[in-house]
Amino acid sequence: MKDILTAPFVKEMQKTTANMYRLGWDERNGGNISYMLEEDEVKEYLDLGNVIRTIPTGFDATDLIGKIFIVTGTGKYFKNVVDDPETNLGIIRIAEDDTTAELLWGYKDGGRFTSELPAHLMSHMARLKVDKENRVVMHTHPTHTLAMNYVHELDEKKFTHTLWEMCTECIVVFPDGVGVLPWMLCGTNEIGEATAKKMEEFRLVVWGMHGIYGAGKTMDETFGLIETVEKAAEIYMLTAHLPRVNTIRDEEMVELAEFFGVNYRKDFLNI
Ligand code: 2HA
Ligand code: ZN
């Protein structure tokens, strides 16, 4: 059996959380990541018959029975994952009863997965229906995206349109746009259900006055989606109070989308 601390998926979680912390997006225990793993890649490092303990999830994840995830821990700081992955991360498998998680590794101090597990697993289920290669769900509190929530209407067409105007590559990176939820109580099944509903249409969902969710095939793709929204939001926050002299026009966005061959939300443009 190989040493789990050398596993590429553990290293990816360490690098990503450290990077996000350094970007200032994940203060204290802010943010959480879940990453679906293949049984074959995990069994090189762990005895899949050895369940350390079971933890109730509090909701049905029928479509995910037997699926394995590496997930950040509740109350844990992204800042600390790099130095102590075994305490701050856990590897869980959804049990046959669909409401229990079997802990295979991690949460060494007796901890458990993120309080946002409902939103994560429900989002995995929703995205897998649209894209069977989806593996990653990421939640974070990117500074400018969050700032924009306070000064921009929380309407998904208007919010997406403004982001698309801020960087030329935006419509190409997230042609499907950004879903937006109003402020809601976090850590609940309700916000999980609302997020998953949006994930049927979007790979990015803003949680009003809280943060953002992203979903994708790889850690890079998912991080890249959020990073691009955050960059656009930063440009918006640097310019929103100034007279707008130039902008990327809707006709130019169409040109971009057509040139790069992306299927964009035509109803999010004003033409
Ligand atoms: O886990 O970000 O939404 C900390 C959070 C809750
Ligand atoms: Zn949060």
Describe the structure.
This protein has 271 residues and is of the alpha+beta class. It folds into two domains: 1-115, 3-Layer(aba) Sandwich (L-fuculose-1-phosphate Aldolase); 116-271, Class II aldolase/adducin N-terminal domain (L-fuculose-1-phosphate Aldolase, 3-Layer(aba) Sandwich). The chain is built from eleven helices and nine strands. The chain has helices at residues 8-22, 39-42, 78-81, 85-88, 117-130, 143-151, 156-166, 170-173, 189-199, 219-239, 250-260; strands spanning 32-37, 53-56, 68-72, 89-94, 100-106, 136-140, 179-181, 204-207, 211-216. Strand 7, helix 9 (189-199) and strand 8 form a beta-alpha-beta unit. Helix 6 crosses helix 10 (219-239) and helix 7 (156-166) crosses helix 10 (219-239). The longest helix is centred in the C-terminal third of the chain and has 21 residues, at 219-239. The relative contact order is 0.14. The mean pLDDT is 98. Bound molecules: Dihydroxyacetone (2HA) and zinc ion. Residues 29-32, 114-116, 139, 186 line the site of Dihydroxyacetone.
